[in-house]
């Protein structure tokens, strides 16, 4: 851990300032996401949001998660989004006008209400002095609010990664395996959903050395895509996304 | 002065609400989807915060799983969107009105 | 007194006519059913089926009369129960027959005149296309009237009462394809119903007070009834009787009932059905004898009706309408009799009137038959030459109804007037009775003169009919009835020692003289003079044809021709308000009730339409709905937690 982050995780003024700045970035990029007209700009805002959240994870002593967030979310998922955006050619003028009258005002009002109720529901007891993680009040049980005990001790024992790994393969091994299966299913599903309806005559017969003639320009036909090559990520989906010739899909 | 854990929770709640509003406001299906991802992230933030509060890594494990499942979900979802685009030649959510009474 | 009033009822011995008496009513009913079902297939035999069952009933009636006469006077009230009908808690009514002198006398009249009219109808309805139905209805009527007359319970009597009303409707409207006939039938039925309400309420009161409707139990108990109950029952029964017997205020149906075939008019509206009211009051004599004031009311109603009807009859020009109003008038005489308590005199007049009125109606039918169904007496005249038998018998009938000395009508009318003269408070009624006697003689003489005497005015019509005498099937009943009209007086030559009075003693309460307004001899003399004067005036004034009405008398004559505008009065006072009430209720039903129901439907449909707008098909609005729900849930949870007082607790406890 870098000294800055180390300092931030100890609580104190460093954590406060980190929180303020990074939180502002997160909020700002979130607002940007929902307000930007251009879809690509919105995607970029999303990336920024993910980065901010990754920093917050680090501050919250979830270091492994911070890295995973960067790799998977910012690195793969947003790239997926961008690919599809490019593929489908979303026009610039994505109007914000709603066909349903009053949708925007209703949504805004509800958003505020939702925020208030959620905040009240979740954050209520945790605003007191004892909720400052790792502080003396928390550890000794004095002060208002529910004590936040902090993960300093846990992380110090084995390290965050080891601790997580241990939990994953003991208490949560069942969920782990099922999630692996889920990923395979998702990959298969994406392939099935993504392919064109093939003309039977175009199928390549086994043993044939002649490839069927390609229709259209055929560029980027077999490019596996620019996504990361992690085995359990949706890399296989890139092939199916890129195969349909451009000429057909773009409007 | 330092940060009570509740502040993180409030931030997460705000991000969640913003994501929800975004789903309702935007017309492009892809941007809607991005807002959903925002919501998922806010939930992750909440989970991690609670892990810290309770001094247990279980919250982080759950957040881990959320990330994994979100990735799978994005995969399939974008495939669906591509299919939708093939049918309708548009990614406007208002065009998909088959449920109209 | 012996008989019903004393409760001296005997059970019918097995095998006696009384035990078979119920067949008198049932056989015609069965034959009516047969004729209705298969009459068409029987063809020419259909009328004979009816005539045979009528004959059977007459035979049974004669046998019962003879048998009853052979018994001691004290044992002449015989009851025979055929079957139980209504064992309904306190109310136990059986199908039972009461064979006593009054019932037997009535059934003799009904079956006798009934059979004669069945035979007459053979000829009269010969050319009709629906003969089986006619005879079926005639038989149905015969059976119903016998149920009425022989019924041992007031409820059985009421069943017969209603059935004859039904038959009246069916027969008046026999030629129902012509609108006026159907309307007349409806009018008769509806007005009868008004009277029936009175009858029913009287039955309820009697049942409430006595606990039974059986005559055997009710009549002896009449002495013990409270005064209020007696008065109420007496007046209500009078109401029912006015409906059936066409008295004021319910007489307006009888003149219109002439729309039916003439045999129907003769049988039902002269001899039998209309007498049911008189029969009812006579049957309930033990009750009426307790309330002589109400009896005076009955007599007054009769007198008023007699006068009004006679005045109207003077101005009528239809051959049957004159007779119809005459019937109403004579029924008034009968009511006068039973009102003052002279029950046997009333029944006597009922019988004689049955003879000569049926005779007159059948004669009118014969004339109409000869005149190709024309009925206006102003267009007749001089028919005595062409229709000697009809004319001769009609003359006898006219004399009888006018009260010419030694005819049956003379004796019966005399007895009534004498009884009224012997009743306290009967002065006005007596005076009216004498005036009506004069008028009766006058208008009947006019009727006879215009039809049978004088110049033959019908020859000046466009298509003059060629009158000829009617066939034997029609003239034979005329002759028989003429004989009865002449000789019927022997039935009761003297009110106290006459055959009929003695015969009826077990059934009705005897008349008690309470006053002596005028000597009987003087009264008889006055009546004879009035009859002769009326007859002479009528014949002399009208033997040359209809007379011009002087200008001063014209309004009065017009008023009488319009039957004193009673129909118009009823229309204005009752029918029109009723119509407006129905209109108002219809409006309320359509707007209010239908509106409510339809409105509920429309409201639901409107709600559904409004609700369907939620199904926009836009995914985003669905998402909005989801969010709304979520917000509500979370806010609700928070609220509950806060209210619980613990604050918001999201503790771990991992």
Commentary on this structure:
The complex is a heterotrimer of chains A (251), B (101) and C (654). Chain A has 251 residues and is mostly helical. Chain A folds into four domains: 1-91, Four Helix Bundle (Hemerythrin (Met), subunit A) (Up-down Bundle); 125-158, no CATH class; 160-195; 211-250, no CATH class. Chain A is built from eleven helices and no strands. Chain B has a domain at 27-90. Chain B contains three helices and no strands. Chain B has helices spanning 5-25, 29-54, 58-88. In chain B, helix 1 (5-25) runs antiparallel to helix 2 (29-54) and helix 2 (29-54) runs antiparallel to helix 3 (58-88). The mean pLDDT of chain B is 87. In chain C, 69% of the residues lie in helices and 3% in strands. Chain C has helices at 17-42, 46-69, 101-124, 131-150, 154-172, 179-210, 215-221, 227-244, 253-256, 262-271, 276-283, 285-288, 292-314, 319-339, 343-370, 388-402, 408-421, 427-452, 472-487, 499-504, 520-542, 554-561, 566-612, 619-644; strands at 10-11, 78-88, 91-99. Chain C has a three-stranded mixed sheet. In chain C, a hairpin with a 2-residue loop joins strand 2 (78-88) and strand 3. In chain C, helix 3 runs antiparallel to helix 4 and helix 16 (388-402) packs parallel to helix 19. The longest helix of chain C is centred in the last third of the chain and has 47 residues, at 566-612. In chain C, 52% of the residues are buried. Chains in contact: A-B, A-C, B-C. Chains A and B meet through helix 2, helix 3, helix 4, helix 5 and helix 8 of A and helix 1, helix 2 and helix 3 of B.
């Amino acid at each position: 851990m870098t000294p800055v982050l180390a300092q931030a995780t100890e609580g104190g003024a460093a954590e406060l300032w980190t929180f303020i700045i990074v939180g502002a970035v997160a909020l700002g990029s979130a607002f940007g996401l929902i307000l930007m007209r251009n879809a690509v700009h919105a995607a970029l805002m999303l990336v920024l949001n993910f980065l901010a959240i990754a920093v917050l994870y680090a501050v919250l002593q979830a270091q492994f998660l911070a890295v995973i967030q960067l790799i998977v979310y910012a690195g793969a998922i947003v790239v997926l989004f961008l690919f599809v955006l490019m593929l489908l050619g979303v026009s610039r003028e994505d109007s914000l006008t709603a066909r349903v009258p009053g949708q925007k005002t209703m949504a805004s009002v509800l958003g505020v209400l939702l925020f208030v109720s959620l905040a009240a529901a979740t954050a209520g007891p945790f605003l007191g002095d004892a909720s400052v993680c790792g502080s003396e009040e928390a550890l000794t049980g004095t002060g208002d609010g529910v004590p936040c005990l902090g993960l300093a001790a846990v992380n110090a024992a084995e390290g965050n990664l080891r601790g997580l790994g241990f939990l994953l393969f003991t208490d949560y091994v069942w969920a782990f395996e099922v999630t692996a299966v889920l990923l395979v299913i998702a990959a298969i599903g994406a392939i099935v959903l993504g392919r064109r309806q093939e003309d039977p005559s175009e199928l390549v017969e086994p043993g044939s050395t002649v490839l069927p003639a390609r229709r259209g320009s055929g560029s980027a036909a077999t490019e596996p895509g620019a996504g990361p090559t992690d085995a359990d990520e949706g890399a296989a989906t890139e092939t199916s996304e890129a195969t349909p010739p451009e000429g057909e899909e773009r409007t | 002065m330092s940060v009570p854990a509740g502040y993180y929770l409030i931030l997460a709640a705000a991000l969640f609400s913003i994501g929800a509003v975004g789903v309702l406001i935007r017309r492009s299906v892809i941007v809607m989807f991005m807002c959903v991802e925002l919501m998922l992230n806010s939930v992750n933030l909440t989970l991690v915060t609670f892990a810290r509060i309770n001094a247990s890594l279980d919250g982080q494990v759950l957040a881990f799983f959320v990330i994994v499942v979100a990735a799978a979900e994005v995969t399939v979802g974008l495939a669906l969107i591509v299919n939708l685009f093939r049918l309708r030649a548009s990614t406007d959510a208002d065009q998909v009105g088959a449920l109209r009474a | 007194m012996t008989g019903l009033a004393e409760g001296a009822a005997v059970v019918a011995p097995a095998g006696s006519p009384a035990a078979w008496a119920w067949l008198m009513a049932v056989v015609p009913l069965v034959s009516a059913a047969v004729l209705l079902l298969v009459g068409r297939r029987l063809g020419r035999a259909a009328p004979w089926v009816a005539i045979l069952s009528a004959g059977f009933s007459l035979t049974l009636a004669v046998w019962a009369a003879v048998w009853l006469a052979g018994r001691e006077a004290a044992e002449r009230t015989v009851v025979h129960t055929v079957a139980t009908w209504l064992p309904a808690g306190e109310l136990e009514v059986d199908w039972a027959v009461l064979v006593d002198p009054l019932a037997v006398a009535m059934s003799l009249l009904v079956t006798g005149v009934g059979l004669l009219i069945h035979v007459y109808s053979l000829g009269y309805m010969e050319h009709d296309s629906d003969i089986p139905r006619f005879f079926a209805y005639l038989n149905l009527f015969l059976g119903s009237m016998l149920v009425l007359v022989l019924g041992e319970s007031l409820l059985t009597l009421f069943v017969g009462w209603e059935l004859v009303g039904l038959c009246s409707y069916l027969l008046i409207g026999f030629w129902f394809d012509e609108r006026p006939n159907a309307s007349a039938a409806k009018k008769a039925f509806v007005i009868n119903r008004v009277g029936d309400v009175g009858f029913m309420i009287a039955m309820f009161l009697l049942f409430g007070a006595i606990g039974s409707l059986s005559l055997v139990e009710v009549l002896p108990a009449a002495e013990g009834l409270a005064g209020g109950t007696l008065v109420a029952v007496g007046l209500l029964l009078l109401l029912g009787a006015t409906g059936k017997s066409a008295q004021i205020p319910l007489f307006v149906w009888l003149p219109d009932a002439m729309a039916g075939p003439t045999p129907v008019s003769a049988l039902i509206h002269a001899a039998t059905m209309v007498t049911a009211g008189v029969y009812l009051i006579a049957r309930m004599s033990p009750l009426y004898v307790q309330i002589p004031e109400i009896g005076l009311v009955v007599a007054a109603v009769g007198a008023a009706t007699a006068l009004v009807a006679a005045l109207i009859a003077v101005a009528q020009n239809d051959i049957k309408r004159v007779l119809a109003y005459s019937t109403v008038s004579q029924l008034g005489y009968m009511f006068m009799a039973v009102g003052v308590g002279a029950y046997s005199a009333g029944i006597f007049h009922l019988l004689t009137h049955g003879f000569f009125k049926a005779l007159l109606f059948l004669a009118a039918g014969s004339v109409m038959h000869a005149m190709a169904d024309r009925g206006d007496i102003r267009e007749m005249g001089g028919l005595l030459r062409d229709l000697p038998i009809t004319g001769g018998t009609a003359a006898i009938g006219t004399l009888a109804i006018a009260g010419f000395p030694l005819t049956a009508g003379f004796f019966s009318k005399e007895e009534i007037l004498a009884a009224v003269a012997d009743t306290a408070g009967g002065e006005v009624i007596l005076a009216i009775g004498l005036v009506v006697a004069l008028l009766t003689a006058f208008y009947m003489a006019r009727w006879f003169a215009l039809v049978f005497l004088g110049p033959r005015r019908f020859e000046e019509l466009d298509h003059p009919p060629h009158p000829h005498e009617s066939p034997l099937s029609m003239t034979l009943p005329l002759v028989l009835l003429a004989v009865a009209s002449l000789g019927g007086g022997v039935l009761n030559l003297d009110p106290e020692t006459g055959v009929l009075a003695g015969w009826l003693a077990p059934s009705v309460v005897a008349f008690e003289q309470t006053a002596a307004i005028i000597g009987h001899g003087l009264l008889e003399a006055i009546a004879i003079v009035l009859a002769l004067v009326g007859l002479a005036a009528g014949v002399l004034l009208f033997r040359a044809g209809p007379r011009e009405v002087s200008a001063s008398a014209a309004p009065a004559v017009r008023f009488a021709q319009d039957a004193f505008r009673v129909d118009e009065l009823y229309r204005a006072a009752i029918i029109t308000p009723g119509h407006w009430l129905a209109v108002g209720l219809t409006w309320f039903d359509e707007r209010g009730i239908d509106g409510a129901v339809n409105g509920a439907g429309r409201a639901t449909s409107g709600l559904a339409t409004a609700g369907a707008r939620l199904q926009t098909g836009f995914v985003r609005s669905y998402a909005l709905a989801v969010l709304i729900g979520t917000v509500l849930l979370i806010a609700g949870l928070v609220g509950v937690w806060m209210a619980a007082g613990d604050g918001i607790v999201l503790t771990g406890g991992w």
